[in-house]
Known about the structure:
Chain A contains 13 helices and no strands. Chain A is mainly alpha-helical and about 290 residues long. Chain A is globular and about 75 Å long. With about 290 residues, chain B is mainly α. Chain B is built from eleven helices and no strands. Chain B has helices at about 1-10, 30-50, 70-100, 110-120, 125-135, 155-175, 180-190, 195-220, 225-230, 240-245, 255-285. The chains are: A mainly alpha (about 290), B mainly alpha (about 290). The interface between A and B is large, with 81 and 89 residues.
Amino acid sequence: MAAITSVGETPLAAPAGRPRGMQARRRRRLNLFRYVVFTVFGLFLILPLLAMARFSLEGAKLGTWSLAAWQQIGSYQGSGIPPLVSAIEITLELAVITCVVTLVLLVPTMIWIRLRAQWLARTMEFLCLLPLTIPAIVLVVGLGPIYNRIQHYELSALMLFWVYVILALPYAYRALAAGLSAIDVTTLSEAARSLGASWFTVIVRVIVPNMRQAVLNALLLTWALVLGEFTIAFLLLYSNLQVELYSISRNTPNAGVIFSTSFAALLFAFVLLLILSYAGRRRRGRG
Amino acid sequence: MAVAATTKTGARPSWPGRRPSVPAWVGTVPFLAYVAIFLLWPTGIVVVDSLKNPNGNWALSNVTKLGDPLVRGYFIGSFKLCLISSLIGAVLGAILAYAVASGNPDGVVRRLYLASSGVLAQFGGVTLAFAFLVLIGPVGLLFHASWYFDFPWGITLIYTYFQIPLMVLVFLPAIDGLKVQWREASENLGASAWQYWRYVGAPLLAPAFLGGALLLFANALSAFATIEAWENQIAYTVPQQISTALSSEVGLSNVNVADLLALGMVILVAIVMTGYALLQRRAARWLR
């Protein structure tokens, strides 16, 4: 029917996705419904964030404004816990290490399986998506004995990256798989191999540059995941950003600095995801 | 012998003149080893330890302890919270998804809601509990909800905050898959809006909706950080009790409590996620 009605009309009208025969009354009702829904849900989603932002700008007296909590981020030191800034540093370092290890582990393996061991593809997918069905709280119970051994050699909280890579697997895998399926890996690698490239060159200099967008997606998702991780660090008695915020709130309830730091971390994640969303759109626009 | 067999299927016969190459599966060894050590081994430890006594002897009867009134209480608490929060999240998320989908597919509103959903679905945890604390908690800026620390309603409200965006992400593709032609066809045949939804829309969307609700259920089940930051004195749910059991060995003295609870959770999540996968497959029929 859409085809019939659009015959005599401008071709631009058809892909707009609006039923042409919709009566004005129903469209008005639908628009009213949409505005109400957007307002209500928008308020529900934005109010907690606004409250957090307002609280982070609270002065010494209730109802006053001050930037003190934001200035404290660099210098806050709770009693009996490491300084806030060290927890931030550790978390950022963890994010970098986790991103690098995840990519080094996943990208060559996925390309290799695609080229040389197709029969392992299903196994790989299953293993990568498995962490979605094993809650972090379950994983941490079994990790206790393993981390006991790791702590014989190294006590630093950076050792958390071993398990963060596992947590990041499903997200990174899906991002990379989408990118990999969009390019003709076999042809690219056969061309490179026949020109004398080593497997290392094929992976690093031929295939990876062709899936830059997918690699970026995987990086951002992994990054956001590490910044927000609490469960495993908390139960293995390490201190990362989230654990630190939790400890500060236990020591000093309603300390302004926890709201400023949380809000900063959230803004950071939001900006990362917006970059991701817009980078993805530009790519589609060109193709 | 096994190596010879894999070589035959895995390695490609082309590229003559090269030295005999290693079997293709060797390239996946680092990945497989990593996953084995940090994913499969810990899971194995949980399963094995839950069936042992603390002194290391096998005790398969431990499984019956999952029916112990104390243990059952935590599972009932978890179940209540997950059921309520996933149902509310699924219904509200579906409504929001419909509102988003019925607008301009390239519009600002859709882009904004999708991007925020991506962030907010992941925005569980300590930070979220803080945000609600200053919104409606004892020091709330909006109002002071006397039920803020009530289980399950206080925490349900907080969980809804990340359940709704997750539902939008999961359910939107299904709504986008509803073709305009179907609606027009039913209108041409004289169907009212109610009849369209009752006989066409709802049956088409049902698998996707139920699948989404199950995913939300699993999501709420494994959430720990949010509820721990909300209330860390009383354990209502399984994850909280696992945390308590890990830090202090009290409770059922002759059982590895944490491992047993973890085993129960693995079983529950496995059931839920299987249902989710089946429903997704059913829903995918219409998404081409």
